[in-house]
Task: structure prediction
Amino acid sequence: MLNRYPLWKNLLVLFVAALGMIYAAPNLYAPDPAVQISGQSGATVIDERVLGAVTRSLDEAGIEYFGAESDGNNALLRLTSAEHQLAAKEAIQKSLGDDFVVALNLAPTTPQWLRNFGAEPMKLGLDLAGGVHFLLEVDTVSAVAKRLESDVVEIKTALRKAKIRYQSVIQDDNNVVTLTFRSAEERDEASSELRSDFSSLRREAIDRDGSYILELRMSEQAIAEIEDYAVSQNLTTLRNRVNELGVSEPIVQRQGRNRVVVELPGVQDTAEAKRIIGKTANLEFRLEARPSELVTRKEAFSFRSELDQQRFGDAWLEKQLIISGDHVANAQSSFDSETSQPQVNITLDSSGGTKMHRATRNNVGRRMGVLFIEYKTRTDYVVNEAGEQVPVTSQVVERRIISLATIQSALGVQFRITGLDNVAEASELALLLRAGALAAPMYFVEERTIGPSLGAENIALGVKSVQIGLGLVLVFMLVFYKVFGLAANIALAMNMVIMLACMSILGATLTLPGIAGIVLTVGMAVDANVLIYSRIKEELANGASPQAAIHSGFERAFTTILDANLTTLIVAVILYAIGSGPVQGFAVTLSIGILTSMFTAIIGARAVVNLIYGGRRNLEKIWI
Amino acid sequence: MSENEKVINFMRVRHLAGVFSLLLILGSIVSLAVNGLQFGLDFTGGTQIEVGYEKPADLNQVRSQLTSAGYEGAVVVYFGAETDVLIRLQRGFDPGLGEEILAALNRDAAQPVQLRRIEFVGPQVGEELRDDGGLGMLFALLVVMLYVAMRFQYKFSVGAVVALIHDVILVLGLFSVLRLDFDLTVLAAVLAVIGYSLNDTIVVADRIRENFRKLRTETPLEVVNISLTQTLGRTLITGLTTMLVLFALYYFGGETIHGFSIALLFGVLIGTYSSIYVSSYVLLLLDISKEDLMLPVKEGQELDDTP
Result:
């Protein structure tokens, strides 16, 4: 019982401490203010030429910068002062024009040797970094109703085709479709007719007041599928829209069954962000104008794809539109089963189908164009009275053709666009069609905007309370437990380092409640040491030798520490499950703190105590 | 256990402590029933705007500015400092609201106003959060009860859970009596109180179990007293270090986590008290005895040994 650790155990403690330091270190380097440049569309390449234009414009504006780097799609320019960030953004935007998105960013300054380990700083939550947080709810109920509506139209068509006579088809508010027939035979026929094509509908035959009724209900699974599709579809659309905003590190995530979280760090203009995120229809289906059409009733549009624009030039479409994008329920690229040519299948909702049918049945042979509408922000520079150039931003709506195809027959709820050159073109078109249409309406249910000054203030407050809290505990432990207090303090410092390292490795987001969690951990982490030391004191009072007291103190306190910490961990995990955003940050830091503190307080502190007192045979007195 | 160490007879005043706890709980419940909790924006839904002034702001002026701009019934309070003003509106959000309010406040204002944050929470989200929060607390208690029953014995788990419910009700009662804002961070603090108080209770329970197995002649009451005395030092020191950091958080952490630190400060105090008086008292009320804590493994071995 000489309290010596084998070499491997000491090395383990050192190794963990070193690892902790490496992965926690990036948080010490303050990030550089930077400007990030990317293309409006994913295909835009940012090469030397673009970088040259950027650096020239900064030189002209007299803004100091360093470290211009580009990975082909994105370029990052570091500035020497945060004050010049806005001016730099304006200067670059002006020189590059509207094909590029220029966003403010903070570039990490992690040295290369740390990056070789894959070490990165923690992300800051919105309450620390400033920015906007939106929570949107997807109206899945209406998505289900919409789907059922288009099913009803198809059911009618199918029954007519099969020459089964029905009295009425009614869809009620509870998503039940009631089909009424004159005879049981007709009903049974209809039931078997609908079985294969509408497998997602449960059929139930009822005889009521002399009429023969077939009730159709959507299965739970079908409803779940539609909801899932609607949410993931809206998620894709939202991502596309958020990209238009040019935010450096946006978060677009599904939350729960039918909600989507959008977090835009650094964005202050909520109105603009909201307008772009919340916009709806941006597809238009229009007939191509006859050459004889009056100029007042037609408009010329260019093609979105440059290749098509070179091949066909501008096309004239009628001013009157058939339907807009909110009637599009789905669009998928696939292959024609006979010719194996790529095609895009489009599904409309029922009212869209009716309108489409009405517009196309007398116009077979003419062409129909699909317009894709994008809302873009354009910045112009105007010289004001004082002779200064001031940027004036304006919203421009760009309407461009993504498809112009000949109508081969009257179109309905479902139709397809063929004649596409290749698979890539088909999937691009399907993507654009889907991006233009939201699968289901969305509502804003939560919104938080935090100013950048408030964020900086929160960081300062958080850091200050950690410092003071930690200082108080360190002093207290040293005064109360002397040498053993020193061991506990070293363990506590190690705990902080490993905690930060774990959070950085896990990519956890630091929030203000998260900092509160760290502070609380500081107070509670010493508990394990207090338990151990109380035991040692007891053993000494019972007349044990110092070495034996140290040994059994650490040994016997262990199960207590384990039990106490495990239960706290359970509570922290539950907190994570029910909480959202900042509160989850608290739960994360608390859980990580509990786990790391068990290691440092039991093994780390023991290593230090062993180093000081271990191996001494004639130890008479210990400072506890 | 050395004979010369003085055992503090904690349990002598157990009935008094029981009455004291009951009175506090009763008071809390009455206040919760009469005053209710003043739920924050997270739970009620609505819109909240924080603006910053350079010099102390005049709340009456802000109110009249808002009223004349058509925002009736706005709640206007200081937030942390007199230069910070928090405005609460029970209405939906529209994109231009922040700018509109700012414009209204800037109109014939003596000093410039800066927008610090806007928050909007839909009423449905708030309601869900309230339900989830309540459910989460119940679930936490249930899981903890199961764990303690498994690791110790069901009498301990009853003791632990009664202590936890006691702590939670008192913290909620404090927020109700003082009419403090109960928001999401406070809920997090209440759950952290559950974690802390449980930690304390488990440490004591652990020692009680150990002493029941070790001490032969003492009565349950004496065993509990001895265990409480042995753990008292640890209970006080850990409570003290935790309160130290919480004071740091209260004084330097800013207004946003004031509620959080108040809930935890009070909770740690109550949790320390309840781990000594409530859970141990419940154990005694349930007639805890040596037989309850026999190691089942050993019994089996003895049975095996008999021919």
Notes: The longest strand of chain A covers residues 389-406. The domain at 141-220 of chain A is CATH 3.30.1360 (Gyrase A; domain 2). The first helix of chain A runs from residue 7 to 24. The CA atoms of residues 286 and 320 of chain A lie 7 Å apart.
